[in-house]
Amino acid sequence: MRVDDALRSFADATAAAATQQYPEASPQVTFEAPRRPEFGDFASNVAFSLAKVARRSPQEVAKLLAAEALRNAPELAEVFQEIEPVAGFINLRLAPKVWHEELSRILSDDENFGRTPPHGSRVSLEFGSANPTGPLVVVQGRSMSIGATLANAMRFCGYEVFVEWIINDAGGQLDALGRSVYARYRQSFDPGFPLPENGYPGEYLIPIALRIRERDGQRWVGAAETEWLPYFSTAGRDELVAEQRQTARRFGVEYDHWQSERELHESGQVTEGIEHLRKLGLTYEADGALFFRAMQFGDDKDRVLLRSDGRPTYFCMDVAYHYQKLKANDRVVDILGPDHHGYIERIKGISAALGYPGRLDVIIAQQVALMRGNEQVAMSKRAGEIVTLDEILDEVGVDAARFFFIMLAVESPLTFDLQLAVEKDSENPVYYVQYSHARIASVLRNALAGDVAAARSASFEPLAHPAELSLIRRLAEFPNVVRGVVERLAPHRLARYARDVASEFHQFYTECKILTGEREVRLARLALCLAAKSVLARTLSLAGVSAPDSM
Predict the structure, then answer these.
(1) What is the pLDDT of residues 457-508, one digit of tens each?
(2) Element (H, E) at 94
(3) Is residue 160 within 8 Å of residue 123, measured between CB atoms?
(4) Staple 179 to which of 196, 307, 361, 469, CB 3.0 to 4.6 Å?
(5) CATH T-level topology, domain 425-542
């Protein structure tokens, strides 16, 4: 019997016992993992919900329910090693044979353990999107790690995921970029040429300007701004977006589409979004501008769609962009940067207004503080006032960056210790997890010829040590962990789970000699190693981290 079936059997028997004793009650029997392993594998607090109806203490109710459940379903005694009422909870410890069946399932399913077949639900996932005015920085690294991990987990859970990057290339910032690149171009002839006010002073624009000089010579020196500005804005955007794509690819993140905001306007999709709101009666004109009735959907004020001169606002682009995504997908997820808190209710209001309430989720990837030991990292070697994502990857590598960026909940600010990320000891979480995988691989390499193959069909009955059963129990959690990542948009659960599996394996490795002289025990423990290696590799893969066989 599988774990889920065992718990369902106990829940049914307990609910029946509760109904017999307290006909007026309708109890929900749920389970959670106890905080301390000595309390068992699972615990139910159903007695607390019945104590008031029963007019008895939760502990008395728990004792009664446990006894009645066993009396009505005596087969539970074969499935559960312990059913013990403690402080009002009913603590459950499954029989080893149930965990052995879970181990068998993990081994037989192998890389498909926990995977859900495609079910046709479509998800649009947008993350990382940076202005096309500079290199990717650390906060984008966090957003990209979160988004890519969610995309992997969603696909693993059977969703069809479409990953997008929005290029914000239709606003005044692109003109500021063009003027900044032009200034660097002019400085290549005249070092005293001034940078524009409110421009981009980073030296990363100098190579772009020099390539334009090499290509065009002095062509633009005497040209009017109306001639050179579109050229330099587009050239700067194209080169910076190309660099951003290269960095994303280096980071192991692939996008299905890089959506230009300018293209949304040129294609007529912005007009389509506006007209849809008009038809719904959700717009009005005032002072020559067109407004969206945003206050009807929880916003603090109505929002301008078209300015009095006819130019669309950034909010108008959001309407058009999300209208297209909401029409085509069952779920839309936006991962925004830490300066977008005010956008959450506003964007959700768009979803409701367009006729798709509850279909849009918005999460904020909070700020990242860089440390090197006890020293805060404030400056970049190459870009002056910013720390680029490429610099982080140069220093710590992709694996450490991907893992560190998802270690904390999305809504929590993250401190990234660059020094810790390169340490080769158990204090470094990514090293600790990867070392566990490498240690398992080493055990399997050192096993006797033929033992590893034989382990898959061996009897698991010798696995009765608490460390063995605890490791199996942890491995069996994998499907629920991945589902929780998707349902709660919480990739940090995957990083925490990887560390938990590594910890459980190290405990097992310490307390149970694997390559023992007793063949039945040796084969059973090798089978457990194979299962741990498979689950750990899958967990790391979903997080975009490699699983090395040696370190």
Answers:
(1) 999 999 999 999 999 999 999 999 999 999 999 999 999 999 999 999 999 9
(2) strand 89-94
(3) yes
(4) 196
(5) Isoleucyl-tRNA Synthetase; Domain 1 (1.10.730)
CB neighbourhood size of 365 (10 A): 25
Strands 283-286 and 368-372: unpaired
Beta strands in 130-218, from DSSP E residues, in sequence order: 160-167
Instruction: State the helix-helix crossing angle for 492-511 and 519-542, rounded to 10 degrees.
Output: 160
**Confidence at residue 381, expressed as pLDDT on a 0 to 100 scale:** 43
Query: Stretch 244-261: mean pLDDT, rounded?
Result: 95
The tokens of 101 are what? 């069946």
Task: Give the whole-angstrom CA distance, residue 135 versus residue 508.
Answer: 45
CA separation for the pair 151, 485 (Å, rounded): 10
Q: Which two tokens stand for residue 127?
A: 């993350």
28-82 confidence digits (pLDDT tens):
899 998 888 888 899 999 999 898 888 899 999 999 999 999 998 999 999 999 9
Q: What's the whole-model pTM score?
A: 0.92
CA dihedral defined by 515, 520, 525, 527, rounded to 10 degrees?
120
For residue 385, the tally of other CB atoms under 10 A from its CB is 12
Residue entry with tokens 């140069």: 394
Residue 530: both structure tokens together: 């194979």
Domain residue limits, the chain: 3-94, 122-167+253-364, 172-250, 425-542
122-167+253-364 folds as Rossmann fold (3.40.50)
What is the spatial distance between Cα 54 and Cα 51, in angstroms, rounded to a whole number? 5
Angle at which helices 429-446 and 398-405 cross, to 10°: 120
Q: What is the pLDDT of residues 103-119, one digit of tens each?
A: 999 999 999 999 999 99
Report the topology of domain 3-94. Answer: Gyrase A; domain 2 (3.30.1360)
- The count of residues in the chain is 551
Residue type, 496: R
Please list the alpha-helical segments (H only) found in 73-205. Answer: 76-79, 96-109, 138-156, 172-187
